[in-house]
Amino acid sequence: MTLSEELTWRGFYNQTTLDNITDLDTTKRNFYWGVDPSADSMHIGQLALAMMVKHFINHGYKAVLLVGGATGVIGDPDGKSQERDLKALDEITKNKAGIAAQYNKLFDGQEFELVDNYDWFKNVGFLDFLRDVGKNFSMTQLLDRDFVQKRIGEGGSGISYAEFSYSLIQGYDFLHLFREKGVTLQIAGADQWGNSISGVHLIKRLESAETDVYTAPLVINKSTGTKFGKSEAGAIWLDEAKTSVFDFYQFFLNTSDDNVIDYLKLFTMLTQEEVEELEQKQQEDSAGRQAQKTLAYEVTATAHGKDRAGSVRLATEALFADTSSVDLSEEQKDSLVKELPSVAAGDSVIKALAESEFASSLGEARRMIEAGSISIDGNKILEDCPLESGQLVKKGKNNFLIVK
After folding, report:
1. Which pLDDT score is estimated for 126?
2. b or e along 310-336 (b: 16 or more beta carbons within 10 Å of the residue's beta carbon)?
């Protein structure tokens, strides 16, 4: 399968400056993809783009992966209804390290070069930037951007000069990487089209050279119509300190039948034949949820490694089996201890619920017990009691504590 066929089949095509997507098959180019350090972790919306990057690399393209230390100082205004809060420089430094570590993990075994745009922007003077970059953009062109119109139009919150200039800064990134790394292609999400085009425009003006942009659509949950990666609790992160490996696995395991085949294409490296086989199994036995189980394992293995994916899969099987904790194997118990939040044996249920933040207070914990919302080893309890080692405390359908 050619690169253009791979991207089209998987759903990684939105918009491009290329005359035809098949142009990707004729020349292996240097490209870049960037993530701003607005947090110390990527979320799964960015993971989808990372998977697209992997396909480019596998088809012989040379990747330059950018951590936006400079652009992170300003913050991308696209898609934001109001001005971002500026982050402290030490927080940006911490966030950059987190993003770089995830690049190294996600692309382990593949060739890429890691760069930070702060390394070239720290030496760029304000007057030089206005003269060499700003002079090449018309205000009309910049004011026509959709996100600018929303911010300055009726009812808009306004936009600062700093955020207004973000597009020029990203455009200069493309120019710098064209000059220094031979980069002629930027790949991005659909929401970055306008910012990416700034680089194409700048390179054409200053270098009389043709470069291109390729974007993927934002992943939408067909069941809800919302941008993928968001839940009631917020974004699903790759950093387990923000989203536990267990919760990460459960998020994908709970994918609806309407979405699961699309997500297998986007978030895994499974072949077309493997995905079609899972699609057939889903049609024959949707209750077996083999497609969802495969998706959850594969994505968790990509983000957290095969060992953790196997551990959380085993823990999930143990939790939802029709058995009590005393019937679990030692391997299953070890997995539960590794993957679930734990409380100490001897604590009361009320204390455990409050300290683990399953309840906001001792009073709420007591009311949850009286309402029959808490069970131990599959049996509902209606009054407080001490916890014993190895017990499983369950709140609602999918929230668990293990007693150590």
Report:
1. 87
2. ebbbbbbebbeeeeebeebeeebbebb
